[in-house]
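During the no-cost extension, the postdoctoral fellow (Dr. R.K.) reprocessed legacy sequence entries with the updated structure-token encoder. One reprocessed record is reproduced below for audit purposes.
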Amino acid sequence: MSDMTYKPKFFVPGDWNALFGFGTNILVNVLVLTGLLKFVIGMPGPILFGRILPALGLMLCLSTCYYAFLAYNLAKKTGRKDVCALPSGVSVPHMFVVTFVIMLPIKIATGDPMAAWGAGLCWVFVQSFVLMGGSLIGPYLRKITPRAALLGSLAGISITFISMSPAAQMFATPVIGVICFIIILSNWFGGARYFGGVPGGLVAIAVGTIIGWGSTFLGLGYGGLTVAGLGASFSGFGFAVPYPAVGELFGGFKYIGVILVTAIPFGIYDLIEALDNVESASAAGDSYPTVRVLGADGVVSLIGCLMGNPFINAVYIGHPGWKAMGGRIGYSAVTGLAILVLTWFGIVGVLSALIPVIAILPILLYIGMLIGSQAFQETPAKHAPAIILALLPQIAAWGKLQIDSALGAAGTNAATVGMAKLGQVGVIYGGLETLGGGATLAGIVLGAITVFIIERQLDRAAFFALAGAVFTFFGFIHNEAIGFMQSPTVVVAYLGVALTLFLCSKFSSFEPLVEEVHHPAAMPEAAE
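Re-encoded structure tokens follow.
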């Protein structure tokens, strides 16, 4: 169909499922970051509910509406009725990074949550320009990088940082978590219909809320809900619109030295993660222009930052999941408009006191399962070893985080305990630290090397090994922070790998390559 004859529908029945799934996903993140700012940073209520959350709502609305607009244009151009908008929202890993690595240390040093807020704004400001600049080279990176490397690294994120925490919390409160999880799986994987087609996500949240409040009245307290907490939450009602926070932003530039150490590498992380997620959407049948996607992330993050939001926007993993639920165009824009209303009218506090978070977390686990499996389903079977290798840096980074958190809770750290003692009990802390540094980019490099070895394209594998040496030299991978030659042995190792692969490509003979019949979308090189 041509542009002139086909007008895509903005909202279809399947959008309801995706709306409740994606909307609750976004809501969970908003509730979590509200708790972080309130209880960790000690942000005053008027600033949190009157400045930060309204700015956050504006950013999320701009982002989701823009990606709905891209989906509409793609559907109109192709005449397809199954086009699904890219999901987007607050970058979850960075939500914790900016809170604990940037804002909290400054709050502790100054005793001023407002100074911490300014530093957070400055952090997002720098990252926004990294994303906008990176959008110019994004399409080229996507073209030369194998799909198994991109999706494998993405699967590592989904298994660890997306899936593990919800899964653990579900089984910590199984009466709510596991029951809600099975309700979701039965609907979204099993096709079971509830009560005349009510979305599975809504049924799960309703059941979890009923169980949570029932346990409260029985004195069991499974969901952590209280009548007093619900009553107090209504005091936050009110109308607030965002207005510029330029003074607070530039006040944060006094901490620019601390900020650059994390803002640049995490900006690159966002760039690579966005490439992964665009590739994931392409594998599901929806190819979006990489430059416009990455540039939009940077622009809407910058707008949010200038209005007072210290959290960066990102394209989310999960596009295939929302598409499989029936999501098309409207679910994205309606989610953004709903969050705008919730944040501008002070309703977020009421929802956090009304709905047990444990009833929403199973949705995140479902998305993690779907994305993790996509890496294997949408690539040739012979590339499975490359996917496994691409997973490992994320697993290492997650494992190190668990160790650091446990030692920190005990009032110590790995350096104090000693590497030798940790090694005696099988904890190879230094190895986890090196392997997990810059995990997303490291996973892509390792996965790409392996794919091209499997494909007998050793010259290309050598190129990625050389890129690994360069990235390591500047501290983008296998390091905790940017710096010159902080992991010299890893740099030398990558150079040795590049030389070995190059020599093998010139002087080795190979067994015949057995070609595999597979869907065209799963070729070694990423689809353009």
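The chain has a mean pLDDT of 86. Residues 159 and 358 are 18 Å apart (CA to CA). The remaining legacy entries will be reprocessed before the final report is submitted.
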